[in-house]
Every structure is written in C-alpha cells, then in structure tokens.
Design goal:
There is one protein chain. The chain is of the alpha/beta class and 236 residues long. It is built from 8 helices and 6 strands; from the N terminus they run H-H-E-E-H-H-E-H-E-H-E-E-H-H. A hairpin with a 6-residue loop joins strand 5 and strand 6 (199-203). Helix 1 (12-21) runs antiparallel to helix 5 and helix 4 (86-97) crosses helix 8. The two termini are 13 Å apart.
Amino acid sequence: MTAAVPLRGDSLAAVARDVVACTRCLRLRRHCAAVAAARKREFATWTYWGRPVPAFGDPRAGLLIVGLAPAAHGANRTGRMFTGDRSGDWLFRAMHRAGFASQPTSVRRGDGLRLVDAYLTAPVHCAPPMNKPAPDEIARCLPFLERELALLRRVRVVVALGRIAFDVCRRVLAARGAATRSLRFGHGAEYDLRPRGPVLIASYHPSRQNTNTGKLTEPMLDSVFERARAVLRTDA
C-alpha cells in the first residue's frame, strides 16, 4: 500500500491525544456527556469515559478495521473502541478466531486484550444520538483517520464494518490515489486497490440490528477475517 508521508513529528499517540481532546462537534460532545451523567442502570457503578474514544491496536498492523462510532453505553462508557457492548462481543470473537486478537472478550481497558497485526478505528470518535453521525460530523472527524493511515505504513488490508465506514474508506483512499469510483458496498465484497491502496473488504456491521435479525451471522463475519488473514499471508 502506498502511504502518504506523515506530518513531521506526528505519531499514533499524538493522534490519540488529539482525539480525546477534540471538541469540534458540540452536538456529539453534549450527547456523550449527558449519557455519561445519566448512565444505564446495569452500569450504575461505572464512571463513564464520556469523551471522544481513541483508536487502538498494533502500530505495525497489516490489517486496519474501520467501524462506525462508539456506542453510548459501550465505548463511551469504557473508553476503548468496541468494548463493553454486543457489537464488540461479536467483533472480538471473530478477530480472536482469525488470530487478530489475544482473547475473544473485551470488557474494559486493562483487561489484557491485545490486538495482533490489527488496528481498530472509526470515522467518528464520539457516540452519536441514535448511532447516526451527521455528514458534517464525519467530515470534521476525518482528519484523524487520514493521519492514522499515513502513520500505519504496513497496512495492506482494510475491513470496513458497514456502509458508512465503507464510504468513508472509499473517500480517504481515493484522496491517496486509489481507484475507488466503481466500488460498491456488499458483505464480503473485496477490492484490490494495489499499488495505490490496500485490499478493501466490506462487511455488515455487527450491530444488534444485523445480528439479531440474522442479516449477519458469526460464520459470515468469520469469513471476512479469514479472507483478511489469507491476503496478509499471501502478501507477506
């Protein structure tokens, strides 16, 4: 994958700090703070994170996973992407089975979870009302993803979880010179954008809306990460 040159002195740690300190989207910041103050009854003893949630993972990752946004009582509570909610349960089980996560569960920061050759981020770093970020909120958050891609020089596969993530990936990769105009979202759709980009694989998002209805099954999600693993092995 051809990578943009990172800004001088930039680092993934600096991106994470900037994410946590971000106040660009007033609607999202108010929502996250309100959820953190009210809390959910089952999490009444928790002190919610209530801030923008940074990405995390292996800085030498070959696989980049792009989700949507933190869940109100998941990552907005725990402070770690896909941690503490049902979507994360599905995601980390699949990643563990494919060898991308050290354990199949993600409960809280400091629970021992380590990503292996994988990095997990999102187009939006604050929990949006109704899980629906506005287009202008996605646009304001986009520079963080652009910086991460510039810094993650070993990424050869990107898995986009859901249509919004897929469309954002198309936009970011097109700006880096990849030919993305003909790309269409569909579960398991795979596009080889080399040498100007990675292999991009689309997946349904492991949201309750998809998993409770059977639109996404665990074998379907497994197949996405098995394919990502196969590409990385071939490309090694």
